[in-house]
Amino acid sequence: MKHTVTVEKIIASGKGLARTAEGQVVMTPFTLSGEKLLLNQEKKTSGYIEGSIDRILSPSPARITAPCPLYEECGGCDLQHGSYPEQLRIKKEIVEESLRRAKIPFEYISEPFASPMQWGYRNRLRLKINASGQLGFFKKKSNTFLLITECLVASQGLCSAVTALNKTGMLQPLAQTTTTSLEIELLESPADGKITLVFRGNKRNALSPALLQKLTTLFIMQEIPQVQQIGWFTRKGFQTLSPSAKPLTQQILLRKNRQTGQTCSLSWSGGCFSQVNPAQNEQLIGLVCDFAGDLSGKTVLDLYCGMGNFSVPLGCCGGTLTGIEGNQESIVWAEKNARKAGISARFFVADVRTALQQLVDQGETTDIILLDPPRSGVGKNIAFLPRLKPKKIIYVSCDPATLARDLRLLCSQGYRVTRVVPVDMFPQTSHIESAVLLERSDSFNLKLSD
What we know:
This protein is of the alpha/beta class.
């Protein structure tokens, strides 16, 4: 069955939302707002129809030819068919709609922070390994292996490493040694371009002694000069074959000290979370520091602090930091980064939700709370934040829906949203990072609609 429709908007999944002549909602990938389309009906559920493009009857002026030859097969990107200004417009609209649907009071949303690089920005790439030891992705909505020779959103260094690994056939013995689904993550250090390889099975202890021996042999061979370290996860944590190798490192130019050129250094291992877009990460850090303002004599609680991505720059701007993070490896590097920067900071390994309850029970307070949670957000435990009496809450989110859910609760407890800034961490995709500043207003008594 076919339908002629006009796309109303692009939703958070990156798909275009339209309606049939009968009023049935249709969601279709690779479309843009305002386009008139002839669609194939692929699947019908009780709530909506999944469509695919049969023909574009009236294209958007923002439509371009996607440069990646594997674009519609790979599934990693979903907005390459739109110009970059259109991508930014879509992302701003997604954030704005999420907040409005949750009935969050806010004045306006700033124009998105564009990424300094639209292509080649990723310094982290996770790939599948097939039975022949070659690297690639799974095709969109399938387990069919898709060989990758180049990824246009990945750095040139990562692409070169992928090409070399596929050409040498070095990974074939690894694929034959294990029966588990094996993945490899390539991480490029922003400071020097050196690459760390992290092997991942479908269980944290999936790498057998035989496979580890193969890894050792692979590392000793050193056939790919830019690869400096190989790591994997065990029940004891993150392990490496080359403990003397340099960590991944990024130099951050502190915005408030641009005239002096002061920087702080962030280092981490392959066992830590890090943002995939280093250049945009620096802009995000600058934005967070701007939100925080003058930190002289102020205390900052950094929840989900990771390896100190925000803690250390905030400490360099004068704040006294406390960081909480559930990943032991990340805390090790947060402490190293803080010591190197010479800042006043302490870090704890703990589940953030549990730690919040403990802090409230102990009567702790803080001037500023910063949180950068995973995609699932914080949930009901975010109710503990106002009880710590911060004057400011800075929320960095990678999911507009869970952000809106959490903000709704904070706004019901005497905080108001004063700034919302979308940050395009992931060009060519519909994923969007957001930074939100909330400030306490003792006289603020606005009730949210039911």
